[in-house]
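Objective 1.3, modelling of assemblies. Example input:
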Amino acid sequence: MLFNSQGFLLIFLPLTLLLYFTFANKETLRIWVLISASLFFYAYWDLRFLPLLVISVTFNWFCSKWHALFPYRSILIAGVAVNLLIIGFFKYTNFLLGNVAATAGAEFAPWNIVLPLGISFFTFQQISYLVDLKRGTAPIYPFHKYVLYVTFFPQLIAGPIVRHNEIIKQYAFDPFREGVYERLSKGFGLLFIGLFKKMILADTMAETASFLFNDAAAGNTLSFYGSWVAAAAYTLQIYYDFSGYSDMAIGLGFMFGLTIPINFNAPYLAISIRDFWRRWHITLSRFLRDYLYIPMGGNRYGPARQVLALMVTMLLGGLWHGAGWTFVIWGGLHGLALVLNHLWEKTGMPMPRSIGWVLTVTFVMFGWVIFRADNLETASAIMRSMVGINGFSFNIPAINPPGQILYYALPAFIGPTSQRLATHWLRPRPIYAVIVACALFYLALRAGDGNYSEFIYFQF
Amino acid sequence: MEITVNSFISNSDAPWKRFFRILIISLISLFTAGYLFVLGVDPYGIIPISFSKDRGFATDPRFFLPNLAKRPQFDSAIIGTSTVRLLNPKDLNPLLNGRFVNLALNAAFLFEQEAILDVFLRHHSQPKFVIFGVDHVNFFNGDNYAQFIGGVPENFPVWLYDESFFNDLLPYNWRSIQHAVKQLRSITGMNPFKYRSDGYEDFTKRHPYDIDRVRNIIYGSSTPQAKVPVQPPVIKTPELLKTFQFPAVRHLDRMLGRLPDATLKIVIIPPFHHFHQATPGSTDDIKWEEFKRHVVDATCRYENSILIDYMIKSPITTADENFLDQIHYTVPVAKKIARSIAREVVSQTISPNYLRYCTCIKDEPAQTAVLDDCGFRGQ
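Predicted structure (C-alpha cells):
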C-alpha cells in the first residue's frame, strides 16, 4: 500500500487512527492495533513477503531473549550473521554470482529472487538493536513493543531508520497527552507536504529524468544542456521523492503520538560533502557512522585508518542502496570526496561558502548521474556531455519546458524545510486548516487517478 | 545532532483543537460535497435518474460508452477506432431500419474494442447489425501487436465495463471531478455536448476545414503529388509472404464469432487517402493484399457477414477534399459510406468506391472478388 494511494489515504489511515485512538487508554491493545495495521499494510503489496518479515522479527527478538538467558556474545553475533545472510541472499546473490561468472567468462542466468520490500531498512534496524545488546546499551523489550519497533508502517518500507532507544519508550506515552491536537494537525500538515513533494514535484521531475536517461541508455547523445537537465531533474526527483516519503512517515508517526527522527535537512544547501551527509538521509548516515565508521576506528587511529574507515563505510553504504556497480562507484566517490574534505579541513585553509556550495552541489549531481544510470556506459555518456566533450549544444529536450527545472528547484534550494514549514509556519489559524484540508482533498483525489508511482527508495 | 519536530509542541492545545476540528470538518465536507457533485452531474451516465440522461456527454468516451452499450433502446452497434467514429447512427438508422449506437473509440486498443463489444452483447443478446472498422493501426500492423494487447491500457476504466453497478459508484478522483465540471458546463449550456447520447461525435468541427493544411499533412506540401509505382515491382514469393504476420486479425475473428448467426456482421476496411495507401509494386502493397486476404478469411467464414473494402484507389480516396488527414475522411464521405453499406445489405451493387468480399453462407470459400448476392435482404 502506497502513502500516495486512495486506499491508504481514505480507508487505511482513517480506520487505523480511529481504532488506535479508540483503544488509546489500553497500551497493549493499541500497540497490537498498530502491529496488525502494519502487517496488513506490508502484506497488501505481496502476501509472500509477510512470512519473511514475521520470521525475521520473531527470530531477532528470540536472539535478544536467549542472550538475556544465556549471555553469550556468540548468540548476538550469530543473530547479526543470520540477518546479513538473509539480506545478502535476497539482495546480492545475483550480483555476486553474476560477477563471479563474468570473471570466469561463464554465462549466468540470474536467479528468480524477488526482493522483499523494505528488507534493507528492517534488517538494519534489527542489526543495530543486536549490536546495542552486545554493547550492553539496549534492554530486552516485550515482544509486542519490539515487533512494533520493526514493523511500524510509516517507516517500515523506506525508513527513517529508527533506533530502539528513541522510539520504543514512546509507546508507553498516552496518545491523548497534552499536545494531541497539535500533533494530529501537524501530522496532517506533514502528510500534505510529503504528498505534494511526491505527487507534484518528484513525479514531474521523474518524467523528465526518465525520458533523458532512457534516451541516453538507448545510445543517443544528450546535448550539453540536455545532460545537465537530466542530472538536475534526477537530483530534484530523488530529493523530493525520498524526503517526501520521510515527511509523510514523520507526519504519520506524529498522528499516532510518536516522534520519528527527521531524515533530511535541506541537503542541497550543504557547503561541503561532510555537510551534505549530515543533511541527506540522516538516519542512514548516523547508522553508518555508529555501526561501521566508528567501530572501524573512525578518526581515533590516525589519518590512514580514518581514510580506510571512510572508504569502506561509503563503499558499503553505496552497496546498501543496490546490488550494482553504479551504486558501489557512487559510494566510493562519496567516500573519496569525504576523504578530500577531511584533508582540506586539516590544512586549515578556508573555503568560501559559495564555492563550497557550488562544488558540493556539482559533485552531488555528477554522483546522482552514476546512481540513476542503468549502467556505467550510460552514466559515462551523460557525464561526457555534461563536461562538454560532445560540444556545448543548448538543444532543449522535447520533454522539458524551458525553465521548468528552475522553478521546481526553488523549494529545494531556497524553500524552508518541511519540518520548519510544519513547526514554525503552520499556526493554529482556521484559514490554514481549510487550506491544508483543500490541499489534502485535491491530492487524495489526484491519488485516485491511477497515475501514482512507487517511491525510489522502495527498491533499496 | 538529533533533530525532531517534537520539541515544537506548544503548551496550549485549545487553538490546535479548533484547528484540528476545522481540518476534519473541512475534509469531510469537501469529500462529501465533491462526491455528491460527481453523482449529481453523473458525467458517465451511470445513475438511472440524472441530469445527463439522454442529453449527451462532454467527457471521455471510454467512460460513458459502456453505459450507452447497456441501453435497451439500441439494437445495433459500431465497433472500431476513429476511422469509423464518423459513421452517424442517424444516417444508418433509417437506411437499415436499425437503432445504432456508435461505440468506436479514438485510438482504441483491441482490448478496448473487445471490452465494449462484451458489454454490448451482455445487454443485447440478438443484435441486428454490428459494424466493425478494421483499422490499420490495430489489425494491420502486426509489429505493434504486443503493445496493443499487452494488458489493460493505463487509465482504462475497467470497473465501468462489468455488470456491477456499485463499483461504478466507487471511483472518485480528480478526473471524475474534472469530467463532472465539463459535463455540468454542457448541461447548463455553457459548452455544447461533445458527444450525442448515441455515441456520435462530429470531430471534424474541432477545426475549420483548410485544404492547404490537409494537403500539407497528406503530401508534406500544399501541392498534390502523384503516387509513383515501384519499378520493377517487388515479386511476391512464398518466402516474402511468410514474413507477414497479422496476429491481431484473430481478435476480429473472435469478435465476429461471438455474434449470433442472425446478426448481420458488417466489416469495413475504411478508406485512407490514396497517397497514404501502399505504393503499387511495393512490398507494402503485397503486405496489404495479404492482410486483406487474412481479413477475408476471418470474416467470410461467418454466416451473415459482409466485408466492404474502401482501401482502394477510388473517387473517394483520390480526392483531397474528402479527407482531414491521411486516414480520416470527412462527414460527406461518412454519409456515402453509410449509404453504400445500406446498399450492400439490401442488394448487391457495383461501385467504383469499394470492393465487396462477402459470403453470406457459412463455410463458403472466401473470394476476393465481387460475389453474387447470397440472399440476405436485411431484417
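The two ends of chain B are 84 Å apart (CA to CA).
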